[in-house]
């Protein structure tokens, strides 16, 4: 449930405005009282296509951030090992000069 997108409860219905001329050859009737033999609007469901693109973008962003953070962690680790080796070499050189 953490990464699933939440779909809106009610899909907004598009409104269309029909501009008709002042003189009409056919009588105009209201859509509520329509007795035309056309099929009713289908309610096949909501489209998930916009949310798929959002999910792909989110996954790509998480992967990029993960790669960058891993590279930074590896850089810090390599730097720490290099500094510790340099400190050991300097300490051994300084201790060797004191004992001679």
Summarize the structure.
With 100 residues, the chain is mainly α.
Tell me what the structure shows:
- The chain is mainly α and 100 residues long.
- Helices cover 51% and strands 0% of the residues.
- The chain contains 1 helix and no strands.
- The protein has one helix spanning 49-99.
- The protein starts with 48 loop residues before the first helix and ends with a helix.
**Fraction of residues in H or I helices:** 40-55%
What's the gyration radius in Å?
Answer: 35 Å
Shape: rod-shaped
Q: Name the quaternary structure.
A: single chain
What attributes characterize this protein structure?
100 residues, mainly alpha, 1 helix, rod-shaped
Sequence-ordered SSE layout with sheet pairings:
Layout: H1 49-99
């Amino acid at each position: 449930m953490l990464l699933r997108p939440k779909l809106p409860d009610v899909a907004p219905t598009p409104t269309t405005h029909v501009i008709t001329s002042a003189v009409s050859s056919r009588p105009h009737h209201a859509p509520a009282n329509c007795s035309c033999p056309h099929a009713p609007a289908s309610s096949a469901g909501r489209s998930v296509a916009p949310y798929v693109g959002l999910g792909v973008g989110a996954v790509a962003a998480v992967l990029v951030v993960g790669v960058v953070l891993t590279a930074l962690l590896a850089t810090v680790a390599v730097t720490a090992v290099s500094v510790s080796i340099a400190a050991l070499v300097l300490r051994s050189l300084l201790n060797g000069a004191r004992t001679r």
